[in-house]
Amino acid sequence: MAIVVQTLSEQIYALIRDRIISGDLPADTAIRQDALAAELGVSKIPLREAFARLEQDGLLFYITNRGFFVRSLSFDEVEEVYALRLKIEPEAVGLASKKATDADKKVAHNALLALDEAAGSDRSKVGKMNRNFHMALVRPIQRQVTIQVVERLNLISERYVGKHLEPAGRDSRAHEEHTAMYEAWAAGQAKVVEGMMYDHINSTLEDLRKQFELEKNPAA
Amino acid sequence: MAIVVQTLSEQIYALIRDRIISGDLPADTAIRQDALAAELGVSKIPLREAFARLEQDGLLFYITNRGFFVRSLSFDEVEEVYALRLKIEPEAVGLASKKATDADKKVAHNALLALDEAAGSDRSKVGKMNRNFHMALVRPIQRQVTIQVVERLNLISERYVGKHLEPAGRDSRAHEEHTAMYEAWAAGQAKVVEGMMYDHINSTLEDLRKQFELEKNPAA
DNA sequence: ATTCACATATCTGTATACAATATAATCAGT
DNA sequence: ACTGATTATATTGTATACAGATATGTGAAT
């Protein structure tokens, strides 16, 4: 078990990030610094550092002297973020499949197992486990900027998937797609996994489009 | 003249960012917080917020209990960042050209003039003016995440261009490319400007590749 | 040369104070 | 009752002082 030393600032960052993604914090409302600091039992310094990071991540926005606000969701952002993901992530995963070591493959496999496990038990963790799996496929690319960009896009995506897409038939399809992708990826079949990842992301986008359409024009 | 209220944290962020980009701060050396705070006459609170933002921007990296370090330059990062820009920026500029209002066009035109002006007088500002121009072409797309990603990639690019590419013949070619791009963009010729932007970014990448090659194998 | 102990520098975080700004509440005048 | 001005309150943004933890440097002893 690797011991990772984390500062309070980093822990708070991850915690608030999860709250934003899970929809725990309401959008377009200022996050009260003193209140949150008191709740977490920390001072303002690490809290504001976390806020600054989250603003850079596109999860918060900031108005001078008024504070940090959770960014609201919009269908336009879905289109935007998925367009970016489709441009970047499939190729990144393909390249990563060529560089992945046995250790990398083990990490990805474990992430896949954890995702399946979460899908069967703790649904609240599915989003995070899904992101972990996707990132495990990307990380071996060893391009820091690409990894950071893809992670950011996945984080934003997660807000929409968690809010709008209920499991239903999605789970079994996603499970099959993930498994197939992992197999191709672990085998170093770059072009194959690239195509699969494109379809995978695209099908989630299609689901989101349908869902937004439904919510706009609810069936009688 | 629009009055923009900026916090110290934001000003410091921009200031340190410029120092990193200009190569003023040495890479792989911890930035001494107390020293920098004293020099700027501020406390560490806004300073650390700025650092946190810059880390998220990929300009600094962080080691727990040791502090923030300027990320070192590498040719791999050039390839990575330009690969991402080529995937994203041309299409973004093309889309933006379809949405640009007259006000947007005025902003872009002014940015172009400022860039030419800087090229003739204050060379140290060329990088920033170049980025301003590029961003002016992108902003009308009105996609926040895309804008942020493109800006980040441009910031990183700027470090390399400023360090490795001396003007020489570049200036006049860049000037012509910029002018032609602006014309096509302002005319709403999305596909044309998209192609031009691709070539423009690509030619800078080629210049960087040549330069790196030269620095590795200096001519006798 | 390695190791250990110790001193020092630096980082991380707390608590507190305070000025500037934003928000809410109050009140006066129509 | 409404509007606008005034005051009060809450919140943000920053500074300062301080403490604990970690990292770095130095010198002695082996």
What does this entry look like structurally?
- Chain A has 220 residues and is mainly alpha-helical.
- Chain A has two domains: 63 residues, Arc Repressor Mutant, subunit A (Orthogonal Bundle), CATH 1.10.10.10; 142 residues, Four Helix Bundle (Hemerythrin (Met), subunit A) (Up-down Bundle), CATH 1.20.120.
- Chain A has nine helices and two strands, in the order αααββαααααα.
- Chain A has a two-stranded antiparallel ribbon.
- In chain A, a hairpin with a 3-residue loop joins strand 1 and strand 2.
- In chain A, helix 1 crosses helix 3, helix 5 runs antiparallel to helix 8 and helix 6 runs antiparallel to helix 7.
- The first copy, chain A, is globular, with a radius of gyration of 18 Å.
- Chain A starts with 7 loop residues before the first helix and ends with a helix.
- Chains A and B meet through helix 3, helix 4 and helix 7 of A and helix 3, helix 4 and helix 7 of B.
- Chain A binds a DNA duplex (30 and 30 nucleotides) through helix 3.
